[in-house]
Amino acid sequence: MRILVLILKRLFWFVPTAAGLVAAVFFISRVIPSDPVALIAGETATKEQIAARYRAAWNRFRAMNPPIPAGQTAEMVERTNRAVDWQAEHLHEAPVLIFPAMAGCRAALEHPVFGRSVNGQVWVAIQNLMLGCRAVGLGAAITTLHLVFEEEVDRLLGLPPDAATFAMIPVGYPLGRFGPTRSVPLDTAVAWDRWRA
Asked: Please, how many CA atoms are within 13 Å of residue 20, restricted to the half-sphere of its CB?
């Protein structure tokens, strides 16, 4: 039975009907009534074009050889890099690419205060979407690398000039371990009363 479930999940990775589950997730993610965010699924015709730009952006980032972020080890960074390498090579195979977007926000994004306010509204919707995906057994990953080629991707998606995407979320059935995530210890992530020096 377990093998049958595994085979079915692998088959569903290639079947675009995962879009049906994603539609249910869209419904779940719209729970907050005041949420103004439109969630746009990329069309199949543009997946390869978007994937090519994603690979180029990832290669550009890797070439910069950024320093290891605070709180991470070289091993953690390398594991993440291997996962993103795989995603860059297989992005076009994801059944659905989701672009959280908002119309009429382009001018506000340029403002140092209002831009952060707009971002806050969008990331609440993204969190709801990610939780919804996990609840129905879908794997999803947030990335913003497509923004390196933002104008081109916006054209591919047919966005109006006043709209903007904030992230790209490939969604599909997970291929590997899909267990609990790791978190850093709370005392390293939370400061009381003021910023820790």
From this structure: 5
pTM of the model: 0.75
DSSP H or E segment with residue 157: helix 150-157
2-174 placed in CATH 3.40.109.10: yes
**Euclidean distance between CA atoms 197 and 183, whole angstroms:** 21
Query: Residue ranges of the domains in the chain?
Result: 2-174
- pLDDT > 70 fraction of the chain, expressed in percent and rounded: 76
Helix/strand number for the chain, H first, E second:
8, 5
Is the distance from CB of 195 to CB of 126 less than 8 angstroms? Answer: no
pLDDT in tens, 63-88: 998 888 887 889 989 988 998 999 99
Q: Which two tokens stand for residue 107?
A: 């001018």
Angle between the 44-64 and 74-90 helix axes, to the nearest 10 degrees? 150
**Is residue 1 predicted with pLDDT exceeding 70?**
no
Average pLDDT of the residues in 121-140: 84
